[in-house]
Design goal:
There is one protein chain. The protein has about 675 residues and is α+β, with helices and mostly antiparallel strands. It is about 20% helix and about 30% strand. A hairpin with a 4-residue loop joins strand 28 and strand 29. The longest helix has 22 residues. It starts with a strand and ends in a 5-residue tail after the last strand.
Amino acid sequence: MAGNVYALLVGINDYDGRLNSLDGCVDDIHGMRDFLEGHVASNRRHIVPLLDEDATRERIITEFTRHLSAASKDDVAIFYFSGHGSQEPVEEQYWHLEPTGHNQTIVCADSRRPGVPDLADKELNELIAAVAAGGAHVLVVLDCCYSGGGTRDPRTLPQDLRVRLAPPNQRPRPPDTYLPGVRRAMEGGSRDASGAAAGAARHVMLSACESTQLSLELPIGPGYRGVFSAMLQRAMATLGPDATYRDLLGAASVAVRDRVIGQHPVGYATQPGDLDQPLFGGAIQLHRSTITLERYRSAWWIDAGIVHGIQPPHGDATTILAVLRSREDLDTLAPERERPLGRVRVTDVELARSRVMVDEGWEPDTKVRYRTVLTDLPLPPATVEVRGNRDSVALVRACLADSPHVREGAGDPGTAGDRFVVLAEIDGLTVARADASPLAASVPATPDGARTVVARLEHLTRWHLIKRLDNPVSAIANQVTLHVLDARRGQRPPLPGQQEPITPQPDGRIHLRYRRNSTGWQRPYIFVYLHNHSDRHLYCALLNLTDRFRCHSRLFPGELVPAGKTAVAFEGRPIDVSIPRERLEAGGTEVYDWLKLIAAEQRFAAEAYELPALDGVLQQRGAERGRGQRTVLDRLADRAIARDAGEESADVLEWTTALLTLHTERREQA
């Protein structure tokens, strides 16, 4: 039986003028609270939110001791902090307790008032130790900066970005201002006393960035959000029931990189294997295996909402579901032979449910609860903000007017869409991420340059739509997985289970490295295995999305993988994941690839998702594409690439996706 969930959720926007104010921290906490309320029954849910002036140092410590420490075996204790992070020096005599010479800190609402210090990492560890002592599963999420500096200068960031970094304290704290356990450790010279040492108590920690990076917030949807919090919570809403913390970090990291550069979320567990356990220790059901339709409050509703990944309508586009017969045994009728009774379209999305409109031609029985299967998703156009020189802005704006993929606006489409910036200067036009980091080289500020910029925006929108494509309510979520194995050139693939796969690092990525020997640099090779863990035969395609914004399906273009079986990509040959020669010659040392697996109960056209590299020529689709009745995946491909909706599919099918990030480096060892 699932235990209770205790959560202490701290969000601080307002630091009473002592520090720069933030804009997204309180909404980060609202988002996490919404997630818990949508996934945990009220009698098992115990949430204490501390927002702005209520989030004092004393109150945070008190609620750790009073509230979170009430969690016991089989319970989950969550501490979520969204606000400023910083550093403080330690006295020289205690250097052996902190070789860096600094504590990392979280900044409370009253920190830096007379006599009120920050909450140091060693103090946080002491509080965590007291909670973990009761046997609860402890999760700590920190969306703040954790260094005195970063790889980017906050002064050079765009005005609409906020940095969750407070200036470091200049003077060491007196020892008597630390919590008792830390004081004892300092006085006794022991890093292990009372949990004062980092990692002394069993817990999992998810951090917004590495210790030398900045944690950013920017407009996402209707307001500001921490980039990490928004993407973490989106991933929690869409991952399958067996997702691990490593899976969560991988999904969140991919989405963070699409918005900002130089911020890499990381995970830490006192027992490294805990990163591979189910989220929240398995105590919170993340995924609904079946979405049902029923009559409620004089309207029709499905029992899935924002916290399950259902997106609000975007203009005329919305989530569409096929309605199926209700039956006890879901396996009595082959899904590929089942025809829907009718269809419903989402009109309003609430926290845990969504109101729908029934299509004409079918009248559901108000006394019946129906099964549903997703058949269409809204794929919103990207939003682009054009900034800079008036004449250069006008050039871009004229070319944007007729684009079906991109619309101009300062707003943000939320986690379901993309936001770009065009930096329009007198001498050049540059397409950039939302944080103004360039995505491609600048082009001249001419009519031809403006057309190139819009073509790039449309290409990037297509590429990101494919990368983000997922079915948030799939019954086979997490049933198809990807594994990457080390390989040698010319090697035959080992049988499944004969060789351990490469484990993603705590940042959620698989890191591959060149090796140097007496003959020079040796490039890496890999095998990629596709595992169908479900009880259904599934058609699978493996897309390779490159950091040159290409997408191709030649690794595994769409084949049947029987139930319970494994296939090897690239016809079993080792895959070369080396860095392109021209990049090496230009001084580049790394390359990214994203492997996206799409699996479905019916065959679909994987080649419909293919894109050339940025500035390449997009192949025209055949005249037969966009006509007739196709699978939902064929239809989504046409909408993502050509904005051609075509007709809806008559069949219904389950489909799901999986995504792995590969990072290949060639660097000299330090």
